Known about the structure:
This protein is α/β, with parallel strands linked by helices and 339 residues long. It contains twelve helices and eleven strands. The chain has an eight-stranded parallel beta barrel with strand order 2-3-4-5-6-7-8-10, surrounded by eight helices. Strands 1-11 form a two-stranded antiparallel ribbon. It holds the Pfam family Bac_luciferase.
Amino acid sequence: MSLKTLDKLAYSVLDLATVVEGHPIADTYRLSLQNARQAEQLGYTRYWFAEHHNMIAVASSATSLLIGYVAGNTQTIRVGSGGIMLPNHSPLVVAEQFGTLATLYPNRIDLGLGRAPGTDQVTAMAIRGENMNASFYFPRDVEALQKYFSVDNADAKVRAIPGEGLEVPIWILGSSTDSARLAAAKGLPYAFASHFAPAYFKEAIKIYRDNFKPSAVLQQPYVMACVNVVAADTDEEAEYLATSVKQMFMGIVTGKRRLLQPPVESMAHIWNVFEEEAVMQMLAYSFIGSKQKITAALTDFVEENGVDEIMATSHIYDSEAKLKSYRLFAETFIGSLVH
Length: 339
């Protein structure tokens, strides 16, 4: 692999608008904006929200509204979706919504697309109704969305106003190998959810790179990896803070979801050995520790996988500790060498 430096890599934020125990959702949104403003100052490339539904600790269900809220209160950082779950929506409505955002905030809006429901099957039924098989039509719906954004659609009977003729960057998101093939075939940038689905990461990005076909929007493969980050002054403090995200993933494993819990001195009384193994497998691509430790681990990760961009997501209970974690993480991209 050619000589590469971390300071040449783009770094970004994925925000799930995590709801913290003891705080109203309104506080979540205020912290998201505060975090986005700090990220803008620290050189982060983009700030994305993820569409999820019926999850007590995740308040990013109305994703496009949060994108507008943050874009309208920042100046330069790109804001977008990581992602919009396209089978939950009609391509026309997505084109209109993101066409509106791109008109209000030119050259700052990203549209990341996923095929999962972003929730459980019962809630998916409430969202999709009789259209429960919509995920099978994901490639077709991506093409429909591209058509609505195209100037060539001006003569069609159904048009996206606003949206038509706007260059809204489309990303394909994935947590398995299926979307890797689609992103490659369409010549689109590919973002992988390695922050919760690490098992297929290496296979998926290899499929993407091996099958990539250049397009009008992208000449070379572009891989973004989303990872969990908990940075602090010391390794010990970071490990303590990280018990909150471990408890959050415990809720996913056991089906007993709660608001983001405060950190604890030990997880021993919270999980058994099987639950610990399941959680730690999901958290395989997590960077927890001091800036020095994270820089070394991140250097190895980039060297091994050759990604083009790192997107950090941080589930930290204390708001000041969370902001500090993002500050320390940004500093790891300054002057760090990767071979």
